[in-house]
Specification:
With 312 residues, this protein is of the alpha/beta class. The chain is built from seven helices and twelve strands. It has one domain: P-loop containing nucleotide triphosphate hydrolases (Rossmann fold), CATH 3.40.50.300. Strands 8-9-10-5-11-12 form a six-stranded mixed β-sheet, sandwiched between helices. Strands 4-3-6-7 form a four-stranded antiparallel β-sheet, with no helix packed on it. The chain has a two-stranded antiparallel ribbon with strand order 1-2. Helix 2 crosses helix 3 and helix 3 packs across helix 4. The chain is globular, with a radius of gyration of 22 Å. It starts with 11 loop residues before the first strand and ends with a helix. The protein binds adenosine-5'-diphosphate and magnesium ion. Adenosine-5'-diphosphate binds next to helix 1.
Length: 312
């Protein structure tokens, strides 16, 4: 077990077999389950993309949970978010939300890297839309939308169209975030939401997200490539390996719930950031070794086959 691969209440364990292959084991405690993946396997055609993937996120009432998934490109992170959003079912295994199979009624919301605002609507129109679709009166929808627009720092921009040359990338992503939060989802999925933004804007968005999360106390699952972003925002980091994708390591970010901007300058932040980077590096190293081993085995098999043909 890795030193950090353990949460406070001992319900998450990182285990390793004698070959050093790691797996994460979840012990179901009395806390309510929010999201559970059990023995999930995904095949796209003949290709096995995800195998034996397990995840259990329990509710910590009155605080919510902020989870980040880190892993190489193509390891299956978006696929996992799609399961949780109910957009896709695994080839086999179970995906449970609040201990039940996914239902359309589950209040889950997704934010993508590409700004998913409607350019023919104003900022206000975009943010109101989910409530209007739910049948909320225009007056109430407008009031709530104004509140949310305020929270994401877009006040004064309500009447502008949500278009590229009118709003900046950061502002468009704020529109998308406001729209996805307005119906008060208990689960918010974010797939590299700040990936297309410049460093400073990204930084502002991280601080905004951290403040909003403290207020909403919901469950956020963030997929990102940015290690500092993962540490700054989350309490729990899960690491995925690739080929096939599964969750192989866990890191509990032991920082206070409130994360002021200056936290990023602290020695403690750097220490954690470095440990997370080392963990990612170790997973990549292991992966490279495994790929080398497989290639060599294939080469040896080919050679043996050629020799036996030669002998005949
Ligand atoms: N609908 C699909 N059909 C075929 N292959 C897919 C499909 N969706 C994803 N893949 C493949 O599965 C792997 C994992 O994809 P994805 O979940 O998007 O990974 P990530 O988000 O970690 O980059 C990739 O190799 C990708 O090309
Ligand atoms: Mg992806």
């Amino acid at each position: 077990m890795t030193a950090h691969g353990n949460n406070g209440d001992n319900s998450i364990h990182v285990i390793a077999d004698p070959q050093g292959n790691q797996n994460v084991e979840f012990v179901n405690t009395e806390l309510p389950d929010v999201i559970e993946l059990k023995g999930v396997r995904q095949k796209y055609g003949e290709k096995l993309v995800i195998d034996d993937c397990n995840l259990l996120i329990e509710d910590h009432p009155n605080t919510g949970q902020f989870i980040t998934i880190l892993g190489a490109s193509g390891c299956g992170k978006t696929t996992i978010l799609n399961y949780i959003a109910g957009l896709q079912k695994p080839t086999s295994g179970e995906v449970l939300i609040n201990s039940r199979p996914i239902e359309l009624a589950d209040p889950i919301s997704m934010v993508f890297q590409k700004y998913s605002s409607f350019p023919w609507l104003s900022v206000l129109g975009n943010v109101m839309l989910p409530l209007i679709l739910k049948g909320v009166s225009k007056k109430e929808a407008r009031e709530k939308a104004h509140e949310m627009i305020d929270k994401v720092g877009l006040d004064g921009h309500e009447q502008k169209f949500a278009q590229d040359h009118i709003l900046s990338g950061g502002q468009l992503q704020r529109v998308a975030i406001a729209r996805s939060l307005i119906s008060n989802p208990r689960i918010i999925l974010m797939d590299e939401p700040f990936g297309a933004l410049d460093t400073n804007t990204r930084f502002d968005m991280q601080i905004m997200l951290s403040e909003i999360w403290l207020m909403l106390k919901s469950t956020i699952i963030l997929v990102t490539h940015d290690i500092s972003e993962a540490v700054f925002l989350s309490d729990d980091i899960f690491f995925m390996s690739a080929n096939p994708g599964k969750i192989v390591d866990y890191y509990k970010v032991d920082l206070p719930l409130e994360r002021p901007r200056e936290l990023k300058h602290s020695a403690e932040f750097f220490r954690i950031r470095n440990e997370v980077e080392d963990t990612l590096y170790a997973i990549r190293q292991k992966q490279r070794e495994e790929e080398r081993r497989q290639k060599e085995a294939a080469r040896a098999a080919k050679k043996t086959a050629a020799e036996s043909v030669g002998k005949k």
